[in-house]
Write a structure and sequence with these properties.
Elements (H helix, E strand, L loop, with lengths): L3 H4 L4 E10 L8 E11 L4 E5 L6 H8 L7 E6 L2 E2 L5 H7 L3 E4 L13 H11 L4 H14 L16 H13 L5 E5 L7 H18 L2 E6 L2 H7 L2 E6 L2 E7 H6 L4 H9 L5 H25 L1
Parallel strand pairs: 3-8, 3-9, 6-7, 7-8
Antiparallel strand pairs: 1-2, 1-4, 4-5, 9-10
Helix pairs in contact: 4-5, 5-6, 6-7, 10-11
Length: 289
């Protein structure tokens, strides 16, 4: 007998996604993604990990409609969204939101926090009274003081600004949030608080997340599944616990060894292990050639 879980379609289904940017003048185009496929279930988090230039941010941008889809498809709740018109893409913003990497530039410094949070609500037809009530609830959800709405984003710390950005993403009660390196610009203690907040929000609201990061240690704490990217391709994917405890691909192991540790002695040992591992990989490649 087939269960409902077995037949339930994923909230987000990316199939054979290719993103290619046209070249300038007579130069050929640049292919950022090479047939990438991934899925995110409702209420779950997929951690997308890789070094800078691996293509992980491009996937997030394609889902948000900010990168051109050359081939393949992106399906959200069973509906293709890869090539929507501008009007239909704007309508989809109530279901898909984003938290950007830099909390210092992602918020308008000329607007109060209340204005930042009410703007998308008013644009969607919410009354001013209801919008103000919603903002009070959002500030409470992200653990900011009730009077924060009267202040400007520049008056807050980096971690507090990222909480404001998370509140903005939650304004229209989305079903999916693309988190593009949301803690990489924060110190470790602030990172932990923001990650705890995201986990709390997911448990309470059931929102799904695509968590883009370069740090597998961060993914360990927030993701149910993980996909590891290298040079525009997914080289390994699976349950987070499995991938991190027993990585099958050498690149995944290298990423794990590159993650910093607070203990200086353990960090020194890990650094030595990474150098030895990379040396082994180089020798293997040379032998094959």
């Amino acid at each position: 007998m087939v269960t409902d879980d077995a037949t339930r379609e994923p909230l987000l289904d990316v199939k054979n996604l290719v993103v290619e940017y046209p070249g300038r003048l007579r130069r050929g185009g640049f292919r950022a993604l090479h047939g990438v496929s991934l899925q995110i279930e409702a209420g779950k988090t997929l951690g997308l990990v890789g070094e800078s230039g691996s293509g992980k941010t491009t996937i997030g941008r394609a889902i948000l409609g900010l990168a051109p889809v050359t081939e393949g498809d992106i399906r959200f709740h069973g509906r293709s969204i890869a090539r929507l018109s501008g009007r239909r893409r704007r309508a989809l913003s109530s279901d898909i939101q984003v938290v950007f990497q830099d909390p210092y530039t992602s918020l308008n410094p000329a607007m109060t926090v209340a204005d930042i949070l009410t703007e998308p609500l008013l644009a969607s037809g919410t009354s001013r009274r209801d919008a103000n009530e919603r903002v009070r609830g959002l500030l409470e959800q992200v653990h900011l003081p009730a009077n924060s709405g009267r202040r400007y984003a520049r008056e807050f710390s980096g971690g507090q600004r990222q909480r404001i950005a998370i509140a903005r993403a939650l304004c229209r009660e989305p079903r999916l949030i693309v988190c593009d390196e949301p803690v990489s610009a924060l110190d470790q203690s602030t990172q932990a608080r923001v990650l705890d907040l995201l986990e709390e929000i997911q448990q309470r609201l059931g929102v799904a997340m695509l968590f883009v990061t370069h740090d597998l240690d961060v993914v360990r704490h927030v993701s149910h599944t993980v996909a590891v990217m290298r040079q525009g391709r997914i080289v390994e994917s699976g349950a987070t616990s499995q991938v991190i405890s027993d990585p099958a691909h050498p690149y995944t192991r290298a990423l794990l060894l590159a993650a910093p540790i607070a203990d200086p002695k353990l960090q020194r040992i890990r650094r030595q292990e990474r150098r030895a591992f990379l040396s082994e990989q180089t020798e293997s490649i040379t032998a094959v050639r």
